[in-house]
Sequence to fold (612 residues):
Amino acid sequence: MIKKKKTRSIQSILFYTYFYLLFSVLGIFMIFFLTSESKKLRANAEKLISQNVNTISAFLDEEAKTLDTVAQNIAYSNLIKERFTKYIKSVDTDSSGDRNTDYNSLQNNKILIDMLTAIIGPNRPVVQIYLYSLDKGVFGVGLDTSASNASVKDYPWYETFISSDHYRLMTSDKDERLKNFYSYHNGATFISLYAMYYNAYNIPQGIIEVKNPISFLTQKINNIAKPYNENIYIYDQTGKCIYPDFSDNSYTEYFRTLSTGKVAQDGDEVNTHRYNKNTYLFYKHTEYAGFTVAIAVSNNNLLRPIYEYIQANIIILIIIAFAMLLLSYLSAHIITTPITKIYKQVQSFKLDLSNTGKNVFTDIDTHIIEFNTLYSALITMQKKAQQSMEREITLQNQEMQSRMLALQSQMNPHFLYNSLATIQSMADEHMDSEIHLMCQNISNILRYISSDKELMVPLRLEIQNTIDYLECMKIRYDNDLLYEINIPDTMLDIKLPKLCLQLIVENSIKFTTKSIKPPWKITINGTLTNTYWELAISDNGTGFGQEEIDSLNEKIEEINRTGLLPNLEIRGMGLMNIYIRFKLLYKGSHIFRISNLLTGGALLTIGGKYNE
Fold:
């Protein structure tokens, strides 16, 4: 079964069409724009983090070059090497009893201290220098100016140094020897450069160690902006994390593997590695220091600017969408306003009995030639249709009036025949007063029937005529007929179709006298409100049968549905004739109900719209 599509107005169709079209174009543009800009933001974020990696690498290389420069100055100073050799010999020689030798050794140490102090200089590129013999003997200048006969092999870094390339090692660690000479909240942590120095025959003679506190480096790193809440890590040549403060983090094993060369890396460029689902690593192996600089950033933080940018643009998109919604509505409204005016005119035009003379024809200017022509043709057609309907109704009213007059003329002989027969019977009974009363009532009825040709008469005249008729019927049925009339005085000037009330009463008497034994009772009650009036005519008979009620209601519905009136029979004035007269004369604003009383008996209610 095909589902019936819901009908919509042309304005809603145009409105949704314009809106969907504009929104689709805007949506495609925004998707393309956001995709393009998101890629740029992601690239800028990666570029900024890579710049930070390069900046920190430059800090490390600068520090390494500073340490290396001092170490090279010492390594190429023959005087320093000569004085340190003398110091080593004095350590190896037991000269405790020779005052002259002790003096020479002391002078040698003083000169060596002066030389190393001169190397450090006033700018203090390094804070500590240690010279190590390959066997025994250590000489230090700087924060710790001291000498000892300790063996270099006893130091923890020695094995790593010996196995390093070119006997060169750079690392960072805490030095217990300097903790009493250096005050820093992170402790005596230093970056140390170890280098072998040689004699003129390129034979290793000893080891040079130069130191600087790591705080010099951390101060620079801490000043670097971290827009993505990234974490910075620095790993030395052994894969040990030296920043932040020898922390043991989840990336240590990865960079320890990296330092061994098991993981490929581009030495000159910043490498990017997705460590896990939510973490990216940006790292670089410093060219000079041999350290690894790494920055770990959460994927959420990395994409946060993109999310914020998208959210801002979604808000803009919503604002533009509302603007498009308004623009679409205004466009559809402007285009469909002429059509809406024509539609309202068509909708308000009703061609039936209840709207004759009520249709209003308004001249409008749509400012569009085609619509103006269409509207003019529509108004002309509606006017012609209304004129045709009015002519048809006039003809029907004239036909109704002619038939009513013909009916009235035929009612007189029939009514006179019945009345004369009743008078003859009363004359035989010598009922002179009753004969006089009946003749007077008959005279009033005949005068009312033939008085004027108006279709609508005041209720007071219709009531009086009905009373005259009931009095005649009361005499005829030997007072077995009773009647009661309850009508407010305010209703007496209301107009209704002529003879309708008498004919309803006549119909009630006819069927009541045939269906039950006397007494028979006819009741007429009137009701008046601010908007309508009603007359309820009831009897104490058996009432309407259900088939009669259904048949009458079907005929009424047929007339209301088609607007056509059936041919009226001259024989008898049935209830349908009365309904048609009310419908025509009240132009649809009428009341006509057929029912039965709860206690038995027929009830017919007639009425109409009331205007004071």
